[in-house]
Write a structure and sequence with these properties.
elongated, 6-stranded mixed beta sheet, ribosomal protein, single chain, Large ribosomal subunit protein uL4, rRNA binding, RNA-binding, Ribosomal Protein L4, Chain: A
């Protein structure tokens, strides 16, 4: 089992924690990790882009000039794609970009992402993080104490003071154990997890 240090919010080491190999030391499946990231980005797309084809652009019903004798190339409509104001060739239409992964694939992808962070020693475990009030400066000082900048913070409980304190820091995102995903784990440089959150993750996925 991997052994990681446990810190308090002042950045001082207060103990150590054994990480479960069934979660943080699995065989990394890069294909499923890639699929999970692409799936999440695709599922977030609105898919509302739309343009008109030549059949949908108004006007252009009359032939602009006769077929022969003008010296111009023959034209049938002023709404053909080569005309200004004409339709778009293969115009994009609203569509659903999303696709599904099964539960086993999602689980393997998530465990692979967690394992990669553990192997890179990019997991920081906090004994706990609590604030008496909503204060961005307080959360910024925690990051400063840990010498971190861009981080995903995983909490076990929906602590509004912590979540709201981190909201105005653009390089930080706070998630709960039931909302963590592969994309966020890989997007942020470091994974900050509370001891309670580690216990919950190991209980759910082991």
């Amino acid at each position: 089992m991997a052994n990681v240090s446990v810190y308090n919010i002042e950045g001082k080491e207060v103990g150590s924690l054994e990480l479960n190999d069934a979660i943080f030391a699995v065989e990394i499946n890069e294909h499923l990790v890639h699929m999970a990231v692409v799936s999440q980005l695709a599922n977030n797309r609105q898919g509302t882009q739309s343009a008109k084809t030549r059949a949908e652009v108004s006007g252009g019903g009359r032939k602009p000039w006769k077929q022969k004798g003008t010296g111009h190339a023959r034209q049938g409509s002023t709404r053909s794609p080569q005309w200004t104001g004409g339709g778009v060739v293969f115009a994009p239409k609203p569509r659903d970009y999303s696709f599904k992964m099964n539960k086993k694939e999602k689980r393997i992808a998530l465990l692979s992402a967690l394992t990669s962070r553990a192997l890179e020693k990019k997991i920081v475990v906090l004994d706990d993080i609590k604030f008496d009030e909503v204060k961005t400066k307080a959360f910024a000082s925690v990051l400063n104490n840990l010498n971190l900048n861009k981080a995903l913070v995983v909490l076990n409980d929906n602590d509004k003071n912590v979540i709201l304190s981190a909201r105005n820091i653009p390089t930080v995102k706070v998630s709960l154990t039931n909302t963590i995903n592969v994309y966020d784990i890989l997007k942020y440089d470091t994974l900050i997890v509370t001891k309670a959150a580690v216990a919950t993750i190991e209980e759910v996925y082991a």
